[in-house]
Amino acid sequence: MTEHITTPFDAESTAAQVVAGIDLTGRRAVVTGGASGIGIETARALASAGAEVTLAVRNTAAGQQVADEIGGNVRVAPLDLADRASVAAFVAGWDGPLHILVNNAGVMATPETRTPEGWELQFATNHLGHFGLTTGLHRFLAVEGARVVSVSSSAHLMSPVVFDDIHFVNRPYDPWAAYGQSKTANVLLAVEATKRWAADGITVNALMPGGIMTNLQRHIDPEAMGAMFDQAAADGFKLKTPEQGAATSVLVATSPLLEGVGGRYFEDCNEALPNDGGVVSGVAAYALDPEAATRLWQVSEEALAR
Fold first, then answer.
1. Which of 56, 149, 200, 246 could form a disulfide with 41 if both were Cys (CB 3.0 to 4.6 A apart)?
2. Are the CB atoms for 113 and 157 separated by under 8 Å?
3. Among 125, 102, 131, residue whose Cα is nearest residue 249
4. Which secondary-structure segment (H or E) carries 300?
5. What's the N-to-C CA distance of the chain in angstroms?
6. Is 179 a catalytic site residue?
7. Distance between CA 96 and CA 172 in Å, rounded?
8. Where on the phi/psi map is residue 121: left (φ > 0), alpha (ψ -120 to 50), or beta?
9. CA–CA distance, 251 with 258 (Å, rounded to integer)
10. Could you give the domains of the chain?
């Protein structure tokens, strides 16, 4: 492990500030969930630096509106992360090198819902869908070396991956525990993929974008969400704009300061410190556990092979 990564940027930095002066001409990027929230601002920043950006989205009409608004070399392709056939189709439709993959899409605190395979929806969407996408695109990521961005959350502090009952078959469903373990899985993916793919020049890092009001919260009661943010504000937590929320994703995707760096967790545009249990920040030790990361990779491969 090399030294702790710090940058000139912070919680108030925007994606545009982070990418200023970086030339991505000739680089190709995919942003999942690029039609809303911080996905839009992530795509906008990458495109502004000259990248060819593909918005991988469920709603292609909404994606096209975003692409037209951003301008530049921005494309749209259908992707439903909860549908294995959709993920496979996206992979089959890709050709040539891929330099940046931003696994940004996600669902939060959904009512108990299962995919046709019986998988809990949040784990299926936030982790298994992105796992299938990332491993499916591996050969393209390896062409010229690539960066993979795994958008996690401080909610990973709510739960490790509960390997004995990932899909809430034998325990009561808790929407926040389910969300939390899916976000822990996002970090563990970064740990294991960086280890497995180091020889290919691929690095994978995870991050907490910050608290941003987007349609990610659409399944949460507005009154409960308001109370949650009021409490967070009382604890010193500040909401970010979407432009600020996208900054850490763009930093992880593009910053020269992260060249060769992988398997880490970032927040507020800097590598996070270990969580001390007293505040909702930092990274949990279980999210960086190499044994858990290897086990999750194996479990995920087995799930997708069925």
1. 246
2. no
3. 102
4. helix 290-305
5. 36
6. yes
7. 45
8. alpha
9. 8
10. 15-305 (3.40.50.720)
**Helices 37-48 & 247-254, crossing angle to 10 degrees?**
40
DSSP state of 110: P
- Which residue from 167, 206, 211 is spatially nearest to 187, judged by alpha carbons? 206
Q: How many CB atoms lie within 10 A of CB 194?
A: 19
The token pair that represents 118 in the structure block: 């019986």
| Cβ atoms 43, 62 nearer than 8 A | no
CB contact at 8 A, 122 and 182:
yes
- Catalytic residue selected from 173, 179, 265, 286: 179
3-class SS of residue 28 = strand
Total number of residues shown for the chain: 306
Copy the structure tokens of residue 216: 């990610």
- pLDDT tens digit string along 71-80? 999 999 999 9
Query: What tens digit of pLDDT does each residue of 265-306 get?
Result: 999 999 999 998 877 899 999 999 999 999 999 999 999 998
Residue of 273, 299, 272, 285 lying closest to 160 (CA atoms): 285
Distance CA 2, CA 7 (A): 15
Q: Measure the CA–CA gap between 73 and 259, rounded to whole angstroms.
A: 25
Helix, strand, or coil (residue 119): coil
Return the exposure string of 133-145: e unless at least 16 CB atoms fall within 10 Å of the residue's CB, then b. Answer: bbbbbbebbbeee
